[in-house]
């Protein structure tokens, strides 16, 4: 007897494949026959069954939009050193960002006491916080 299992690839691999297809997605419009789609631009090859397509442009999430429920990115915390989606340039839509020095209390100098108790002091932690303007 032999048992076969269908296994999903790792999540990272699935995400990477989707991202590749998302980056190559083509805008399409319905053909007059009403049963098929064609690319909106003339220089784009017709999409295959494997391609991602879209019919409408995504809304602008940089600015508040009550119709879509988007609050925009003003005031959002960002990472000034990241080139990813959490990076200030991308997240703040190239509008710029502000740096503030913030202080907060965090547990520190923790010790384990017999039996079953961890005691910590509270220390001030200073951190630069970046927010979109």
TrEMBL record:
Pfam families membership: wnt
Spans through the membrane: none
Localization of this protein: Secreted, Extracellular space, Extracellular matrix
GO CC annotation terms, alphabetical: extracellular space
Sequence similarity: Belongs to the Wnt family.
Xref: InterPro entries: Wnt, Wnt_C
Function comment: Ligand for members of the frizzled family of seven transmembrane receptors.
GO terms for biological process, alphabetical: canonical Wnt signaling pathway; cell fate commitment; cell morphogenesis; developmental growth involved in morphogenesis; muscle organ development; neuron differentiation
Keywords: Developmental protein, Disulfide bond, Extracellular matrix, Glycoprotein, Lipoprotein, Secreted, Wnt signaling pathway
PANTHER family: PROTEIN WNT-6, WNT RELATED
Gene Ontology molecular-function annotations: cytokine activity; frizzled binding
Protein known as: Protein Wnt
Presence of the UniProt keyword Transport in the record: no
């Amino acid at each position: 007897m032999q048992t076969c299992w269908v296994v999903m690839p790792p999540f990272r691999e699935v995400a990477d494949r989707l991202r590749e297809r998302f980056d190559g997605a083509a805008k399409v419009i319905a053909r007059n026959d009403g049963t098929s789609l064609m690319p909106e631009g003339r220089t784009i090859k017709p999409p295959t069954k494997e391609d991602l397509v879209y019919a409408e442009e995504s809304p602008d999430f940089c600015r508040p939009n009550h119709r879509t429920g988007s609050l925009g990115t003003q005031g959002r915390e960002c990472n000034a050193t990241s080139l990813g989606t959490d990076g200030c340039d991308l997240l703040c839509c190239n509008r710029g960002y502000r740096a503030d020095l913030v202080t907060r209390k965090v547990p520190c100098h923790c010790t384990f006491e017999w039996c079953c108790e961890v005691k910590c002091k509270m220390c001030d932690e200073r951190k630069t916080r970046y927010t979109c303007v």
